[in-house]
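tl;dr need the bound structure. longer version: we got a ligand (adenosine-5'-diphosphate) that a collaborator sent over and nobodys looked at where it sits. i said id run it. heres the input, straight from their email, havent touched it
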Amino acid sequence: MYMAGKGGVGKSVCSAATGLWASGLGKKALVFSMDPAHSLSDLLEVDIGNRPIEIREGLDAVEPDVNAEAKKFYERYRNLFKALFEIMEFQIRPDDCGVMPGVGELIFMDRLYDVYIEGDYDMVVIDSAPTALVLPLLKLPELTTGIVTRLLGMKSKWTKIFNMLDPGFGDAVLAEVRRLRSKAETMRNALIDPETTSITVVLIPEKAAVLESERLINTVESHGVTVDSIIINHVVSGCDCDYCQKRMSAQGGYVSHIKEKYGEKRIAILPSYGEEMKGKALMEVARELYERGQLRM
Ligand SMILES: Nc1ncnc2c1ncn2[C@@H]1O[C@H](COP(=O)(O)OP(=O)(O)O)[C@@H](O)[C@H]1O
Ligand SMILES: [Mg+2]
């Protein structure tokens, strides 16, 4: 399950709540943070790190460390990096590869691929990065095709030259390129398969957030991926004070707009709780979403 949306709208809260609910149903779940500004540790009140850690029975969480992963990624594709950068006489340090355009996404993809193939979990909730990074995983085909076709394109020309420079080097590069492409294809196929992946967009009923979410949904759906559900978070209700009445009437317009425009999707409403949702309070969110049947698991 991929939880998408702008920064600060409640993706991590909804991801953690979803993981808690899944484990309560007896599933083995993992919440996987893709946002470099990890916040799961804070929400779940456990120090989560680069390796999955048990939050409670049936629920693990992981906050991959981008720098550590960049180093591992560099090691895994050492020949590929050497080929790409040494020919261009461009020096790169392993820790730097994560900040190269497109590579950060590939690093997360590589890590997610391992989780997917190991198959230890019944459900993986991906707590994604803000939409500014526009669903990086869905752009994998273009990313890898970009990087990879450039290399595959030079197969005939360069494999031989690389092999002459250093016996076996050309073949090693080619093997790494193929491995990377095959992983990216596997993950892309898993992400666009509605039987495997469902995408939920979290938003708040305010103009900028609604507009940005509409753009996000367009982008995702133009990649052939359907957004199944929308969570409208921070909805105010049940107060007669002037301030809340004003907010309710403004929010009401956006809520009906979303309901009309996306009638074919599941739409869940989450109240504004008036306190930070963390620790035990996350169960409240889970009940609101799943026990009340607003979303399906
Ligand atoms: N419905 C809600 N009511 C009250 N506080 C909320 C609600 N949803 C989220 N929060 C709080 O808002 C902050 C941002 O939520 P978070 O899930 O971290 O957003 P995101 O992951 O989208 O950046 C957190 O401190 C969280 O506790
Ligand atoms: Mg978050």
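gonna send this back to them w/ a short note. The two ends are 9 Å apart (CA to CA).
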